[in-house]
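Q: Convert this sequence to structure tokens.
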Amino acid sequence: MRGGTYEVWSRVNLHPSRRTVVTTASALALMMGVTTGVAVASSHHDILLEVDGVSRPIDGFFLTVGGALAFAGVEVGAHDLVAPAIDARVSDGQTIVVRTAIPYEVTLNGETKTAWSTADSIDGVLDSIVNSGSAIMAADRSTLRREMSVISADGPVVILADGVKTTVEAKAGDSADKLFTKAGITLADLDTVDFVFESGQTSLKVTRIFQGNVDVAAPLPFTTEERDDDSMNEGETKVLQEGQDGQTLTTYYRHTIDGKIVLNMPMAKKVTEPVTKIVAVGTKKKPQEKADAARAAAADIPAVSYSPDSAQGIAQEMVAARGWSDSEFRCLVSLWNHESGWNTAAANPSGAYGIPQALPGSKMASAGADWQTNPATQITWGLGYVSGRYGTPCGALAAWSAQGWY
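A:
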């Protein structure tokens, strides 16, 4: 009997005929076909699949949510939201929702992390990420700034820009750029925007960024050069060349953040030299001796010789008595050096006379009858004139420098 078949069947006390075996096999095959058909029919479903807000019907053979997604060719990431769960069984007419999680670079309480969220608004993203404290998320030149809604429900949003807080009434769906337009805030190409989430509220912070060349000018003051001129009398001056300030123009490559310089690299420098002011100063001696003696004799006042140093000593005491500083005295010395060289008998063809060059000299008689020869009298009158007209000797010197007389 073929290969022991008989032994097997005889041992179990079965003696089926060939017809019996065939009939039995046919019945078994029929039963298995009916069972399989029922199983296949029960795995066919019509459902609605919604992926990130886009819906489409699905008609196919699958038993679970995961099977439906695989049938539809939808790949689900580890952070994506799927409802019902992947392993849940499906039923006809059911809706399966998929929300794709997006990674965001977020600074949480000072530490930068990558966080995933399926929310469709900025406040929803940050609220889903933050458990406590604060979060900051950059939104520079991205869909976050141009397209994504800042808040999920109407309400106020605070914008901080240029050190000023501006509150705008935002609507659900308003992007950051739209809120900037409402607030009248213009952004430059390099400016950055951060979404700041704190105490359950989302605000916008603008950081002004500048990168580029900046020219910085520094003045170079002109100097004054005095040249002796023996064609003019002592005390006379003439401007031969007006002075003009120069400048140093430095070009820097500068990087600023909210106006604070973080990089200031010099790139080029251009120097415009100042023009020196040139003043001719008369050195020709005046034949004053005889005139001085005649004036002294006419006034019955003995001619007395005073040196410029002694006259300046008298003036220094008078300046101090008026409460003026040493710098004021130095201005006075410079002023009357130009006017008379501190010569009590200095006379000008115009009629100006004496140390202060009073015009006419007889004005000094109000300070004393010896005004023609006494330096103290001349200085007393001269200080009174300076005080009344210019306030101080330095004020008088400034006027003289500007116009050549005082």
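Confidence is low (pLDDT under 50) at residues 1-39, 293-303.
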